[in-house]
Batch of 3 targets.
Target 1
Amino acid sequence: MDIAWIYLIAACILEPIWVICLERSDNFKKLGWGIVTLVTVLSCLYLLSLAVLSIGPGMAYSILAGIGSIGAVVAGIILYKDPMNKKKILYISLIIIGVIGVRLTSGGML
């Protein structure tokens, strides 16, 4: 696996983390959570910028957005007890299929 994909995977992990931290910061009223939000979002963007150099901006960002969306939905289910239903499972599955398809059509293996 190319190092750019490792950077992208790390950025994908940070994406839902900074979103959760942003919510916990209460519009940056809670300084600790606000600092963690800034550190994680900047780290996410930095890793994305490293991945873009090799992967390309369109593909890298579309994968980041897809995986980040899945992470946010899963976090909502786990942390906030959002309901899970068949439609959510279907749409999450479609995002996963899309990310795999993009990766396969980029000339690389999974």
Target 2
Amino acid sequence: MMTASDDAVPGRRELQGPTVLVLEEEAGVRELIVEILELHEFRVLPARDHGEAERVSAAHAGPLDLLITAAGSGAGRRLEFLWSARPETRVLYLSSWLEDAPPARIAGAILAKPFTVDGLVRKVWEVLGGATG
């Protein structure tokens, strides 16, 4: 799993793909998403809570192409730090409770849990506006 300080680790392969901030409280889910995305050449910045996500975002000098986070009540309010500092960042919400159509209050794409490896990667590329890789 890559952290913001891993940039300078000797021998670590530099990933060249888009940068994704993964904000997920459940360690196992977060680690799985990070591993999947890194295997598909994404640069991943993991965060376990909103405070850590804000610190990681502030410390990252480059672009932040995508945020992956859980959907839920108040999700937009908790992400104010991102909208003000990085309005260009796209959002992919993970949810086990949303049906096909997201509620109007959620601005961003939705990926239903459980998801497959291919489903996650395909959705990330879709949200980023690129090919399915």
Target 3
Amino acid sequence: MIRSNNISQGLLPFQTMRNFIIRLLKGPVSKLANRYSSNPDPQRIYKALSELRTTIQSNPGKKGLVIPFTPNQKFIILSDQHKGAKDGSDDFANSEENYLAALAHYNQNNYHYIALGDCEELWENGIESVKKNNKRSFEAEKAFIRRNAFTKIFGNHDLYWDNDPFAGLQLQNIFGEKVCIYEGVILQTIINNRQFEVFITHGHQGDKVSDGNAFSKWFIANIWARLQNYLKINLNTPAYDNQLKTEHNKMMYEWSAREPDLILITGHTHQPVFQSLTYLERLYRGLGAAKLQPDLTAIAKFEKEIQVRQTMGEIMPDFTAYQPCYFNSGCCCFVDGDITGIEIEDEMIKLVKWKNVEGISTRILLEEMLLEKCLMQPIPA
């Protein structure tokens, strides 16, 4: 009993000091966080995306790859796993079984896996903790590496892979061989005798806190994000802010709509987008079509789902898109354990969800369309 009291007394000064530090720093750090938080600026985003695409095209292999593909090749794009420490704040823990089932399916069916950033949550966790607690997922990813069918792209929450001098050694330790890290990848094919590109990148480009010079990115990943996490300050990124999601998606669409014979696929917002429309926007579009018929059963179904989405915090869409040029893979860390991703195969692009159905991880097709229908004329700048 005395020993227990001594332990409690020994811990008290530490906790008191921690609380004092939080009270002292939270105000000033919060002000700086709000000032320099994820604040997508159109011109910064357009410039960053254009420069990245040009760099990959002119000098493939440094910042990204150019991969020519034919209709018989298959790709799966998954993003935003945020693999953590399997503690109470690990968003990936509930989704891991669906993720493993999905990877087993895609590897067995010879897909090329593009891991589209924020695969590891390295703002909140040390690399050793993430390695220790995600061995099964890393083993599943190794299967693609053995087939030379794995491309790893970094995001803002795993900037470590891009800017830490020991990142390459850590990746080699995880996967058993050298794994390159990229900022983007361009898939190239021919459709109707025209070259068509699928430009794939995480989507944090242009954000003030996520996309700067080498030192600023190192500082954000290793100091600033850890400090905000310690002080329990909302990191205020599109993944956690519905308004930022809408703004970010709008800017991504506006950039891609100006580029001929190209679609853009990103992650980052944790919000699936297909044909430049979010799920809520597609529900409103479906509701409008049902009212024209009118189809009372469909109207009731759409209205019920819209109400559910609004209850979950999704806001009334103000992002009106007309060209199917922007897609978002969603994430692999939804609170219900579901994951979403983008498939490309047989000249089709598909939005899929993996969901636990009566104890079995099940692939559900949400949307699909021919890539040929993405051959649109660019909107003037």
